[in-house]
Specification:
The chain is an all-alpha fold and 244 residues long. It has eleven helices and no strands. Helix 2 packs parallel to helix 9.
């Protein structure tokens, strides 16, 4: 029992060690966001992060935010399966990370009642308006940001799978842009994105561990069954197979 637990923990440490650049920068990012959240209130931080809006930026972030959608993740997975078959493991990991992050995000959304920005400002009678409020989501399922979780889940998988410095940096920039787009488009507060970043990184890491654990178990089962002597003959003693 102790040995099994140790092996699982050792796997976690191995992943972090082999991809230390990604995890260090991910931790740094979360530290910066956490510091920002301590310095500014929910509304103040939102206003500050939305202090500069243009039509060009709005169009840009409307396209960027789609990259955190589950449809995009599934699309990337299908492209890899069809055109890059030797990397089908990557496709499965991307879909698994998306599903895991989605489940975690929906659990928190159902447990925590958190108003969307437009609803929050209206509830507290703040005289603040953004052009993006027109198309922003409403309701009380703001925390955490599902798009941010999906984006950082994907970023984690690519960083672990490719394990190259440039991929790590690109993945983090990708996740940051998707996360900020959710604030710029007035769908989420910064704390929602913070929750999404954490869920995405954890979900991506767990997906790699679970995938490898299941794959190893399947290989062991297949090897065990393939080396069992006279397995069919023992099952059917009176059949012709047992007399061969």
């Amino acid at each position: 029992m102790r040995k099994t637990k140790f092996c699982k923990m050792n796997t976690v440490f191995n992943i972090i060690y082999k991809n230390s650049l990604f995890y260090k920068n991910g931790l740094l990012l979360m530290g910066i966001i956490g510091f920002f959240l301590c310095c500014f209130s929910k509304s103040e931080g939102f206003v500050f992060l939305n202090s500069f809006h243009t039509k060009t930026l709005t169009v840009f972030f409307q396209n960027i935010t789609f990259l955190g959608d589950g449809v995009f993740t599934l699309f990337v997975g299908v492209i890899i399966l069809v055109f890059f078959k030797k990397h089908r493991k990557l496709a499965f990991l991307l879909v698994l990370a998306y599903l895991v992050s989605g489940v975690f995000a929906q659990i928190f959304k159902s447990l925590i009642s958190s108003p969307r920005p437009s609803v929050y400002f209206e509830m507290h009678h703040y005289k603040y308006y953004l052009d993006t409020f027109i198309n922003s989501r409403v309701g009380f399922r703001s925390f955490p940001s599902g798009h941010s979780a999906s984006a950082f889940g994907m970023a984690t998988i690519f960083s672990i799978y490719v394990n190259r410095k440039y991929v790590c940096i690109f993945s983090l920039v990708f996740g940051i842009l998707v996360g900020y787009s959710r604030i710029y488009l007035a769908h989420h507060f910064l704390i929602d994105v913070f929750g999404g970043v954490f869920i995405g990184i954890v979900s991506g890491s767990l997906s790699v561990i679970w995938y490898d654990a299941v794959r190893i178990k399947i290989i062991k089962i297949v090897k065990k069954n393939s080396f069992e002597p006279n397995s069919w003959g023992n099952t059917f003693p009176n059949s012709s197979l047992s007399n061969r």
